[in-house]
Amino acid sequence: MGQSSLLSINNVSLNFGGLKAIDELSLSVEKGTITSIIGPNGAGKTSLFNVISGFYKPSSGSIMFNNNEISTSNTHIRASMGLARTFQNISLFPGMTVLDNIKLGAHSKLNSGLITSGLLFKSVRDEEKKLRKFIEEEIIEFLEIDHIRKLPVAILSYGLQKRVELARALAMSPKLLMLDEPVAGMNREETEDMARYILDIKEERDTTVLLVEHDMKMVMDISDKVIAINFGKKISEGDPSFVSSDKNVIDAYLGKSEIL
After folding, report:
1. Which domains does the chain have, with CATH numbers?
2. In the chain, at which residue ranges do the beta strands (DSSP E only) sit?
3. What are phi and psi of 159, to 5 degrees?
4. CB within 8 A of 181, min separation 6: which ones?
5. CA 230 to CA 40: how far, in whole Å?
6. What is the pTM of this model?
7. Higher pLDDT, 260 or 217
């Protein structure tokens, strides 16, 4: 693993009874890159995301994030260290506004506790005001959702809801942004918009991206590195052109047409 690695997975395994969801997997995510994890359904991609973000504890192996061992750290500790993620299924609060949903994502940035927040100290109000300004001027403007910021999430289209979920993750000011199938269910125009935002997140916000996605055209277009896994094991790694022509990957996807 290189010195520029923000995330290093070292011989990680995850067992569910007799089932090995992840099998001695090692990989690295370099700072300032978009790294994509690909593989067929059941390959272990979401299990890997859950191990990295702390929902599952690995059965063996280690996880290093920003030079810190995080294998046994709780999810909120990892979030406060700069690790944020989105989910396959939208996990927003439908009755709340876009702005309030995004603000929830920034809770790990706040210094004030519940007691001081309840007392509404001036420092707390100032912190809240600063946070709102950051969200409105940087996140909402960046993702071009100012026109919907006061609307309840429930009335938005699926594509816009996915963008709001991305905004909530960005509100955490992450060092590593983990995106779990960000364009699943989107039409081609929505997919192209999301791909542009992901590239801009890397370039303009200096945020490293780790992506799991089935849309191979998007993956190959925007990724700096692609890692293919199958049955919890790494079967290929390299730049998009190398991985897309790797026989192991072609076989795992049941034909070349699936990955080009």
Report:
1. 1-82+174-260 (3.40.50.300), 91-172 (no CATH)
2. 5-16, 19-30, 34-38, 60-65, 68-69, 83-85, 176-180, 208-212, 225-230, 233-238
3. -60, -40
4. 88, 212, 213, 214
5. 7
6. 0.88
7. 217
